[in-house]
Write a structure and sequence with these properties.
Structural class of chain B: alpha/beta
Radius of gyration of chain A: 9 Å
Shape of chain B: globular
Strand content of chain B: 15-25%
Number of strands of chain A: 0
Strand content of chain A: under 5%
Shape of chain A: globular
CATH superfamily of chain B: Leucine Aminopeptidase, subunit E, domain 1
CATH architecture of chain B: 3-Layer(aba) Sandwich
CATH topology of chain B: Leucine Aminopeptidase, subunit E, domain 1
Number of strands of chain B: 8
Helix content of chain A: over 70%
Number of helices of chain A: 2
Largest sheet of chain A: none
Radius of gyration of chain B: 17 Å
Number of domains of chain B: 1
Order of helices and strands of chain A: HH
Order of helices and strands of chain B: HEEEEHHEEHEHEH
Oligomer: heterodimer
Distance between the termini of chain A: 25 Å
């Protein structure tokens, strides 16, 4: 599976878990930062 | 800080992503380095290094950096290893307490190294005291003792306490090299030690001080 696809799935799981509403899926680097941000917030 | 209740696919997907990123970074095996008196110098990202153990300079909380995308080594290691590392550190805090061991040991998870030794070096406010110097030296000695106890063959040190912890780079470098050299003299144990630096200034300092120490 491509990295961007995996990252999108991870962000879906994390944003559901954190109950936050954010846009993602347009830019890999932004999504990667968002992933780190979400993980840090857990 | 727990992922209790999260979709169980999280860990599988995270590990898949981090292992792809690890492979893209080109893993460097420390066995390929040139050693002089069992010491080598490397400039670059510590998360690329395949070694028995790498040392993470963390804070007194021992749970990893909580500033998202902060450019510190603690954050780099936490981000590349995966969430399991923070969970293991939390478990250590919960079940063993903080004070028991100055070196907190975790697995490397998605890093190429086997283990990560987490140590909190002294933070400098004002002038460097004798105690600060001793505390910094003990970070190196405690890690080497732990590596010996675990019968490890290689260990990679980052520059502990420099940067945001404000220990002057030149003095920190002298202490790091002296501590390792003294430990080698006192311990009949063969272990490869790598000093991993990120900044050019640290590379120059280590090159100069290692030359001096080896002459």
């Amino acid at each position: 599976m491509k990295k961007s696809k995996i990252l999108n799935k991870l962000l879906q799981i994390l944003t559901n878990f954190l109950k936050i509403d954010v846009n993602f899926g347009e830019n890999y680097e932004n999504d990667r930062r968002l992933f780190v941000d979400c993980v840090t917030k857990v | 800080m727990t992922l209790k209740g999260i979709d169980e696919k999280f860990y599988t997907l995270q590990d898949e992503l981090l292992s792809l990123e690890r492979d893209e970074k080109d893993v460097v095996d420390v066995e390929t380095f040139e050693y002089k008196n069992n010491i080598a110098l490397y400039q670059g990202n510590i998360t690329r290094l395949k070694a028995d153990a790498i040392v993470n300079a963390t804070n007194n909380e021992y749970l990893g950096c909580f500033l998202p995308c902060h450019n510190c080594i603690d954050n780099q290691i936490m981000s590349a290893s995966g969430f399991q590392m923070r969970e293991e550190l939390l478990a250590i805090k919960k079940y063993k307490g903080y004070e028991q061991d100055p070196v907190k040991l975790t697995a490397g998870y998605n890093l190429p190294c086997k283990y990560v030794f987490h140590v909190a070096g002294p933070q400098i406010f004002g002038n460097v005291t004798k105690k600060d110097e001793q505390d910094l030296s003990m970070c190196y000695i405690n890690c080497l003792d732990k590596a010996k106890e675990m019968k490890l063959n290689s260990i990679v040190f980052c520059c502990i306490s420099t940067g945001v912890y404000s220990f002057p780079n030149d003095r920190a470098c002298e202490i790091a090299i002296k501590s390792v050299k003294d430990w080698q003299k006192k311990n009949d144990y063969d272990i490869k030690v790598v000093f991993d630096v990120f900044l050019d200034i640290d590379k120059e300092l280590y090159e100069r001080n290692l030359r001096k120490a080896n002459s």
